[in-house]
Specification:
Helix 1 crosses helix 12, helix 6 packs parallel to helix 7 and helix 10 packs across helix 12. With 379 residues, this protein is an alpha/beta fold. The protein binds flavin mononucleotide. Flavin mononucleotide binds next to strand 4, strand 6 and helix 11.
Amino acid sequence: MNTSLVRTRNAFESFLYRKLLKPMLFMQDPEAVHDRMARFGVALGSHGLTRALVKLFFGGAHDPILEQTILGIYFKNPIGLAAGFDKNAELTAVLPAVGFGFEEVGSITGEPCAGNPKPRLWRLPQSQSLVVYYGLKNDGAEVIAKRLRAAEFGNVIGTSVAMTNHPDNLDMRHAVLDYAKAFKLLSDIGDYTTLNISCPNTQGGQPFICGYKLDYLLDIIDEIPSKKPIFIKLSPDIAKKEIEDILAIAHKHRVHGIICTNLTKKRDNARIIDKRVPSVGGMSGKVVQGLSDDLLSFIYKKELALPADKRFVLVGCGGVFTAEDAYKKIRAGASLIQLITGMIYQGPQAVSEIELGLAELIRRDGFTNIAQAVGADVR
Ligand SMILES: Cc1cc2nc3c(=O)[nH]c(=O)nc-3n(C[C@H](O)[C@H](O)[C@H](O)COP(=O)(O)O)c2cc1C
């Protein structure tokens, strides 16, 4: 489909979503809506014909200016689905048709986990955010590894690994072995692995943001053979000094990139407009956007002191609703972008809108490939 047709289609779908579908969906329980959408996505992904229809309705117009090869992985565009939407890796067949350039499945834990008691997902509509308190609900690494081995991926796949939300993991050695179990089972599946050390909703908090604990975890991970690049996903809530320690430790190990960021737990955030905010859970969307943008440019600046081949690849995540949001992260140092909440608030055509808009912004500024724009505001 040519670009102007895709634009017209997107504008029509955006109107329908905002005026019709979203008001109906937002009257219902968020987790129930998510589960229903996921089941629908599985059904749509299961046949070539339905996948082709999804592509017709939502697919992007491919633009070579957005193509990159990063750490040996070819990305047709830089827009990925962030971890947490496809927790059990069931949507790998349908998501490429929606226009995503890559997908991160999970987070996946060593053992299956039912997650925290419901309710555990809320909307903050005025703040354009979600409050997430799932507590790493997932089928566990064994089941998901088997599912992924049987799946066909039309896209780059990242496997996000976290520690099982269980009291046994209050013991650090146990928690490390739990990470290692999931890492090992997924070590040869997909294109990259993310170590999620920043889930705000697990028992015992985020122990691996502490330097010596992260060092110990990465020592164990270093010993597990895997050809896949490794990313670490950070919280936006940790102090800059801790971030510097984490970067120094990560550079000593087999780590190739950083994802900025996970959800924020901090309630003293000027972007929270809604009056009622649950006391538990982490917040996504517009509430986390500024924090993740700040951390991204902070890390990019630090990394500039290193030779180019030693720097981490950065992934910007948090509050991307539009092409302008994505471009800001790219100019702050992100080579890749991830999102969830933007798609929920704007509609699934947002992926294609961002793809088209991003290509336009990159061209407007005189770049001939997205890679030239990475870090342009910081360098
Ligand atoms: C419903 C939901 C579930 C999430 N679950 C996970 C998860 O399992 N692992 C993870 O690393 N991040 C998880 N996240 C965080 C997202 O990956 C992302 O970092 C965050 O939502 C900010 O991006 P956004 O503003 O585009 O949603 C989740 C987010 C949402 C909204």
